[in-house]
Every structure is written in structure tokens, then in C-alpha cells.
Amino acid sequence: MALDATIGGSTSNSYCSLTEADAYFADRLNSSEWTSASQGTKEKALITATSRIDEEQFVGYKVSKDQALKWPRYNVLDEDGFFYFATDSIPERVKQAVFVTALELLRADFLAENYMGNFSYFSAGTVQIKQFTQQSAGRLPSDAVRLLERFMTSANGGRLVRA
Predict the structure, then answer these.
(1) Domain count, the chain
(2) Range of the domain at 80
């Protein structure tokens, strides 16, 4: 499947283009996984990241019932609560959340459950310590949540608006 970043398109599968993602990572530290990935792998990462972000619930309403993705949206205020986002574009924070999530997918597939990765084991002589920590597969990276939380009604979302 080819990457389709058409804003509000009926077949769109990404909030951002490969060109936008490459420009974002060109000036970022610790993004070697992105810069060394093939074009096809990058496109898959952007599509998968967008798909995962689209599982969240957001304030406002889809601009069109025919659009494939949840953005663009009506009635979504900016971070300061003064202006509504344009209904013919994707907010920069949403795009940045896609970039961050795509990079994390290239580093490790956090969408897959890894039960063995939840165990920690230490042994010294006759003393053995086993620890089990529950991790949630599919949880958005914390940087992506931070970028999106002002728009989300799910997860850490919700938003107070001054009267």
C-alpha cells in the first residue's frame, strides 16, 4: 500500500508525507533509525504510526464523513484556546506525534506484546529475585501522548477550557 497523505482524503493513510518526515528528522538528535531506513520502511512506519494514533478519541468532529482518518477536525481549539485549527490542514502537533511514533516503531515494535520482556531475573548464590512488570502493548510513546493530550478525550486526554 502506497503512502497517501492527502488531507481529508477518502483513501488517506498518513497525516504526513515522507518529505515532511525526512525534513523533521534532518535536524533531530538520535534519529539514525529513521535516516538509515529505506523509503519503503519509512512509509510503512508513517502509515502504522498514523493508524495507531487514529485509535485514540479526539475532541471536535471529522470535517467529512468520507475522510479516512480522524483529522482534519472541526471545533478543535489551539493550545491556548484562542483559535480553532483550520479544517483544511493537519495540526503540527499531530504530525509531530506521527513522527515520534514512527521513529519508536523503527526502534522496537511496541505494538506487539512481548511477555518475556516483562520479566527481570537476578540470582546471587541461593537468593533469587524474579520481578514481573506489566507493560501495555500498543501504548503510545510518552512524547506522542504529550503532543496529542490537548486534543484527546481518551488516555491522558481531556481538556479544560477557560470560560
Answers:
(1) 1
(2) 18-111+142-148
